[in-house]
User: What shape does this take?
Amino acid sequence: QLQLQESGPGLVKPSETLSLTCTVSGGSIISTNHYWGWVRQPPGKGLESIGSVYYSGSTYYNPSLKSRVTMSVDTSKNQFSLKLTSVTAADTAVYYCARHGTPWVTTGFDCWGQGTLVTVSS
Amino acid sequence: EIVMTQSPATLSLSPGERATLSCRASQSVSSSLAWYQQKVGQAPRLLIYDASTRATGIPARFSGSGSGTEFTLTISSLQSEDFALYYCQQYHNWPPFTFGGGTKVEIK
Assistant: This one.
């Protein structure tokens, strides 16, 4: 079955760039029916959508993070990635990658990675 | 941005009881509403989408209802594994997807 797995540094210094990769297994990232997204959850808090990327490279970003976020896809590796620049302690969170439907058929996030904790600290 | 508000923040119930969780949207989201369950240390799991459709493998004791701005998740008879956090999420108008603040269902 489809599985998603996040990877990347667990510790990032303030003002630097957070970089994470999500590897998709058990299925292809080239899907006309799905987008691939990132959601984060600060410790003890709720969920925040960061943005999503289509296999073609088309992206949607949360306006509150748009100036700092870049997402990309590598279909040859069945991976998609997140970069968040100029991080602060407020960006400390568990970062999840997840799959959802397209703007014309959206059904919520139906498959999630296990999440990876990223701490911003010097 | 559509703001999602969940109530109550905490629900204290006994196994076998019925749980009723509420979610309100700041403007109409039609039926573009999902519910998730999250256990400690785990990723959220999709329970319900399109306000009332159970996701694959979700037991029938979970049901969703509502449309527009008012939604309800009902767990007909709580099992031990149902004590967890529950989030609603709208996907009617995105980006961004927005989530409610969550309801914790705890053992009384």
In short: The interface with chain A takes residues 1, 32, 34, 36, 42-46, 49-50, 53, 55, 87, 89, 91, 94-102 of chain B (CB under 8 Å). Chain B has a mean pLDDT of 97. The first strand of chain B starts at residue 4 and ends at 7. The CA atoms of residues 47 and 58 of chain B lie 6 Å apart.
